[in-house]
Design goal:
Pfam families: AbiH. This is SIR2-like domain-containing protein. The protein is of the alpha/beta class. Helices cover 46% and strands 8% of the residues. The chain has 12 helices and 5 strands. It has a 5-stranded parallel beta sheet with strand order 2-1-3-4-5. It starts with a helix and ends with a strand. The relative contact order is 0.10. Mean pLDDT is 82; it is low at 1-6.
Length: 319
C-alpha cells in the first residue's frame, strides 16, 4: 500500500495544480520536468537538506517546505519532500542517497504508468473520432490549397494516425516521432510512446544519469522511434538527378521548445538537402498561432525566422 501511494507523485502534482494547467500535452510534460528536477536538486544538495529525511515534527516539515518557496517549481518540491519523508520509515537502514534513488525510481515507474494510461485514453478517443457514429469529418482548410497533399511528408508528434485518416497521407510518408498508440499489441511488445522532458544539456558529458530516463532523446533511443524523419530529407541517390520540391507539414504540435532538438534538425536537414522547400505549421486559432510564432522564435532565433518567412521557406496556416 505504501509503495502504491509513492507512485502517485505525478497524479498528486497534477491534481494540486490542475486549475493552472493548459490544454496542451506539454503542460503535463512540464510537470514531469518539475518533479524530476526537484529530485535531482535534492540529491545534489543532500547534505544541506538532510532535514528532509530527518525532520522530527510536522512543524519542522512545514518550515522545510517554505525553504523552497522561491523556487519556480515550489509545488513539485513539496510533493518530493512529502515522498522522501515517507520513505525514511521504510528504508530505515539505508543511507540518504539510496532513499532519494528509490524515490526517483518510483517516479520513473510512475511516468511509465502515466504513459500507459495516456495510451488507453487516446485509443478510446481514436475510436470515438473514427469508428463511431460521432466520428469527426474532415473540414475545409487552407491545406486543401496544397497540390498533391497526399505526397507530402508529415512529421507528426501525435500518437494517432490522424494524417492518414483525414488527409489520406500514407503511413510511409508519415513519421511518428514520438511513437504511436497500439493498445492491442502483443504483451511482449513495448509501448513506443515517447512522453517526457527536454534534455537541456547540449554536451553529452553533462547528461544527468538521474534524469535520463525522463528525457525524450533517451526514450526515442530505447523505443527506436526517433530517426526515420531524416530519410525525408535525403538527396536523390542518382548523380545529376534534380532535387524535387518539398512541403513539410507539422501537424498537431505547438512547436514547444521541449522538442527543439527535432525542429532544429529538420530545418538544418532541409537546408543541407537543397532545392525548394517549405515548412507549413498548422494552427487552430489566433492564440495557437501566436504560440507557434513565439516558440519558433525561441528555437530558431528572430533573424532566422524572419529570413525563412521572407524566403517562403516557412509559413503558418490555419487548419
Amino acid at each position: 500500500m505504501v509503495v502504491k501511494n509513492q507512485k502517485q507523485s505525478f497524479f498528486d502534482f497534477i491534481n494540486e495544480i490542475k486549475d493552472k494547467l493548459g490544454e496542451k500535452w506539454s503542460s503535463i510534460e512540464l510537470i514531469i520536468s518539475d518533479i524530476a528536477e526537484a529530485i535531482a536538486y535534492v540529491k545534489k544538495h543532500l547534505e544541506e537538506n538532510s532535514q528532509i529525511i530527518e525532520w522530527k515534527s510536522t512543524h519542522d516539515l512545514t518550515k522545510l517546505k517554505k525553504k523552497f518557496i522561491t523556487k519556480s517549481n515550489y509545488i513539485a518540491f513539496k510533493v518530493v519532500i512529502a515522498r522522501l519523508s515517507g520513505y525514511r520509515f521504510i528504508y530505515t537502514d539505508s543511507g540518504w542517497q539510496q532513499i532519494v534513488d528509490v524515490c526517483n525510481e518510483e517516479c520513473i515507474q510512475a511516468l511509465d504508468d502515466l504513459t500507459y494510461y495516456l495510451e488507453f485514453y487516446l485509443t478510446y478517443l481514436d475510436k470515438l473520432d473514427f469508428d463511431s457514429e460521432q466520428r469527426i469529418v474532415k473540414q475545409d482548410s487552407s491545406l486543401d490549397a496544397i497540390e498533391e497533399l497526399e505526397s507530402a511528408k508529415v512529421l507528426t508528434f501525435n500518437y494517432t494516425d490522424t494524417a492518414n485518416k483525414l488527409f489520406n497521407i500514407p503511413e510511409e510518408n508519415t513519421h511518428f516521432i514520438h511513437g504511436r498508440i497500439d493498445f492491442a499489441r502483443d504483451q511482449k511488445s513495448i509501448n513506443t510512446m515517447v512522453f517526457g522532458i527536454e534534455d537541456k544539456e547540449d554536451k553529452t558529458e553533462n547528461i544527468n544519469p538521474d534524469l535520463i530516463s525522463y528525457q525524450k532523446f533517451y526514450q526515442r533511443m530505447i523505443k527506436e522511434t526517433g530517426s526515420d524523419y531524416r530519410k525525408f530529407f535525403e538527396k536523390p541517390k542518382n548523380l545529376g538527378e534534380t532535387v524535387d520540391d518539398m512541403n513539410i507539414i507539422v501537424f498537431g504540435h505547438s512547436v514547444d521548445p521541449l522538442d527543439k532538438e527535432i525542429f532544429i534538425n529538420c530545418f538544418d536537414l532541409a537546408k543541407k538537402r537543397g532545392g525548394k522547400y517549405k515548412f507549413i505549421f498548422n494552427y487552430y486559432d489566433e492564440k495557437a498561432k501566436r504560440e507557434i510564432v513565439k516558440n519558433l522564435t525561441i528555437i530558431l532565433g528572430k533573424e532566422r525566422m524572419i529570413s525563412l518567412t521572407a524566403e517562403q521557406k516557412s509559413c503558418i496556416c490555419k487548419m
